[in-house]
Amino acid sequence: EIVMTQSPATLSVSPGERATLSCRASQSVSSNLGWYQQKPGQAPRLLIYDASTRATGIPARFSGSGSGTEFTLTISSLQSEDFAVYYCQQYHNWPLTFGGGTKVEIK
Amino acid sequence: QVQLVESGGGVVQPGRSLRLSCAASGFTFSSYGMHWVRQAPGKGLEWVAVMSYDGSKRYYAESVKGRFTISRDNSKNTLYLQMNSLRAEDTAVYYCAKDGGLGLRRFFDYWGQGTLVTVSS
What is the mean pLDDT of residues A14-29? Predict the structure, then answer.
C-alpha cells in the first residue's frame, strides 16, 4: 500500500497570504495525484487531479505541482472560504489512499 | 447537475448487516465507475470500494474485503454497498463518489453528502 504523508498537519495563514501544502508518497505515483478540500459538515470537493489540472469550476488561485513522490498544493491568496482541511490522494495503485490532511486555519 | 444521494445509514449492532444505496442523477450513470469512501468521526478519508461502469471490475480496501460487497443497478442509476459482519471500527460517514473519467480514472470528481453508519451495541 502506498502511504501518503501530508505536512504540516495545521497551517495558520492570514487572509490574502499564500499557503503551501505538501504531500509525499512512500513510492512513486507518477502524476496520479489529486487534491480535495473539505469544510466542516460537508463532503470533500475535488480541486486538482493529475497533480496539476484544476477541476471544473476551481478558481485559478489553486495550483498543484509535483510528480513522483513530492507534491505541492498552493493557494496564492487565501480567501475566507478557503479555510478548510485539504487531502491528497494517490490513484497510481490499488488500494487508493489518502493523506492524513492539512488543516488551513485563520492566523 | 450531478447529484448523488446516499441512504440506508443508521445504528446497527456489531456483527449485523446494513445496505447503503446511492441514487445518481445528472450524468450517464452507466458510463462511469463509482466508489464508496468513508470517514470515521473526526478522522481522515478512507477509500472503501469501487465498481467499474459495467460491473466487470470491483476492488476493495483490505479492511472490508470479504465483508462488504459493492454492486450497481444501471437501470435504476443506483449504487449499493452491502455491509456484513459490521464492527465498531466501521463506524463512519459513508460517501458515494463518482469516478473522474470514462474508464476508471480512480479519483473522485463528485461526492454525495454522505450517510452515517454507527456500529454499537
Answer: 97
